[in-house]
Design a protein that fits this description.
The chain is built from 5 helices and 3 strands; from the N terminus they run H-H-E-H-H-E-E-H. With 89 residues, it is an alpha+beta fold.
């Protein structure tokens, strides 16, 4: 594993809100407005977190008219979260 890329992935997932976003998106892709409601966050805060995840290549967007749908595309993310879940369980 490239240590720099691994470090960037871990930094992006280190925030509790981003971790929750990714956990949800691993189950199914979701529109940004639904995430805002589910997370009970201001839209601007959710957008900042999604921007970090997108810039690190963890999530990808798909336009649906004026709505934006997000999905996890980084192949290392799901196994990493599974390991974290095992450690907390």
């Amino acid at each position: 594993m490239d240590c720099h890329n691994g470090s960037e992935l871990l930094k992006a997932l280190a925030h509790p809100v981003r971790l929750r976003i990714v956990e949800g998106l691993l189950r199914h892709e979701c529109r940004a407005d639904k995430m805002v409601k589910a997370l009970k966050l201001p839209q601007s805060t959710a957008s900042q977190h999604l921007g970090v995840l997108k810039s690190r290549g963890i999530v990808q967007i798909r336009k649906e008219g004026v709505k934006t749908c997000y999905r996890v595309v980084d192949q290392k993310t799901a196994p990493l979260l599974k390991i974290l879940d095992q450690k907390n369980g």
